[in-house]
Write a structure and sequence with these properties.
- This protein has helices spanning about 10-20, 25-30, 40-69, and strands spanning about 1-5, 10.
- It is mainly alpha-helical.
- The protein has a single domain, classed as Arc Repressor Mutant, subunit A (Orthogonal Bundle).
- Strands 1-2 form a two-stranded antiparallel ribbon.
- A hairpin with a 4-residue loop joins strand 1 and strand 2.
- The chain is elongated.
- The model has no long low-confidence stretch (mean pLDDT about 90).
């Protein structure tokens, strides 16, 4: 699905960038040019960022709990 129409950035490109360590709006803007034109896609990109950070936090928490038991 295309997220950023202005720069033809797809959701899978954003997810791949997040998985490779690009984990801030500024970094995504630099890497993919997402949200650098009209800005209409910025809320959706922020949703992907929040989801990624939540998943990372959950994984980290699970790892810490595994050692606590």
């Amino acid at each position: 699905m295309i997220v950023c129409i202005c720069n033809n950035v797809k959701d899978r490109q954003i997810k791949a960038a997040l998985a490779s360590g690009v984990d801030s709006m500024d970094a995504l803007k630099e890497a993919l040019d997402v949200a650098t034109c009209c800005g209409c896609c910025e809320p959706m990109v922020n949703d992907y960022l929040e989801e990624h950070h939540a998943m990372s936090y959950d994984s980290e928490l699970v790892s810490q709990l595994a050692y606590a038991v």
